[in-house]
Amino acid sequence: MSAMDIDSDVSTVLATIRLELDQSELVSIFYRLEDYYERKLWHQLTQVLDELYFENPEFITFELKNKVYSLFISQFQTKLNPIKIIDFLLESYEPNEILTRLQDLRAQFVNSLQKEHNFKDAQDPEFLKIVQDDEALIYVDLQIARYDLILKKIDEAEQILKQLEKAKFQELNNDLNPRINAAYYLAKCELYKLQENYNEFYKNGLLYLSSTTSLNDKEEKVKLCYELCIAALLGDSVYNFGELILHDILKVIATPDLQYNWLYHLVQNLNSGNLQEFNKWLTVAFEKSPFLKHQEQFLNQKIRIMALLELISVKSSSSAMDKTLTFDEICKFTGTNKKDVELLMIKCFSLKLIRGYIDQVEETLTVTWLQPRILNLDQVKTLYNHLTQWDKRVDLLAKTVYESGGTIWAGV
């Protein structure tokens, strides 16, 4: 079939689809697709396809996306940005069909590269290096890994992710397309969710948020926010929640009438070490998500740790170097029994949240260092008050030295 015949067929396909449409907005988009295709304006054509696929969710159906991809895009996909091709494919097929489609597309990409660089042997080391560095192939491999995980093929997905991590993702800073980084962290999130590894899910979820620019679907945002909050609660090494709390994603559950508003309050009160409010919302959480009831002991320990960290933060100190707290103070503020208070402090030491020492004779905890964390406005205000008090003490000391040492200064 000649190029002219293909162009004629594609134009006929677009015209046929357009005639089946009722919405004037979609009809206008298809006229533009026909125009840009006939003029071979591939960049503008890609922009219109983006608009069709991602900016008109109320008009475009899944069946229409499938028809556009299979009858239109697939006819000239070598002309378009391959990463965009993958994105359009992911929107055009059912999950159980996508994996096969992605594998076929990967084979097409490899064949195109082989022809483009004139390699007869696909196992040539130079060609394999080109394949390893090609962004479209990295991206399609990441999507294959993610859909392996969706279909519970964990071993296959892990193998792909390990190979890619070794080749391209050992450093946080790389020169890859941000969409590729986002796809990598999203695939890692899928893996750690299946493995119930809350610590790694939380870490990679935040990295995904920092990389993605296309998190526009509200249901997707709510789902990710819910999963991140659960990971923040249940991660046994997650004790810094500032990046999550300051991110806009938390706003999707902040309104009181929303389904997961109780989770918003749990994370906020855990971050501030507010024992009473946390326990109040934890009771609600057990009703809304009964599986959290199985983690009650851990959650009680976690809020006590956060309460101790908050006590250390708000505790005034006469020394610029350390703070000393009595066991009684800690018991009262954290709701911990006297016999368990040392275990609480030792747990904080083991998690490297604080440094210092315990005096069992005097029953005191002296803290010389507290893990830095992002503060909310109330915590910043407390820090401001501490700095103000310190400034006043310095002024008072200066005046005392001046008044007491007047004769000394005169003799100098």
What gyration radius follows from the Cα positions, in whole Å? 30 Å
Helix content range: 55-70%
Arithmetic mean of pLDDT: 90
Task: Provide the β-strand percentage band.
Answer: under 5%
Indicate the CATH class of the domain at 304-407. Answer: Mainly Alpha
Distance between the termini: 103 Å
CATH architectural grouping of the domain at 304-407: Orthogonal Bundle
The H-level CATH homologous superfamily of the domain at 304-407, spelled out, is: Winged helix-like DNA-binding domain superfamily/Winged helix DNA-binding domain
Low-pLDDT residue intervals, each spanning 5 or more residues: 1-6
Biggest β-sheet strands, sense, barrel:
3 strands, antiparallel
Helix/strand class: mainly alpha
Overall 3D shape: elongated
Keywords: Coiled coil, Proteasome
Protein name: PCI domain-containing protein
GO cellular component, one term: nucleus
Domain PCI: 198-372
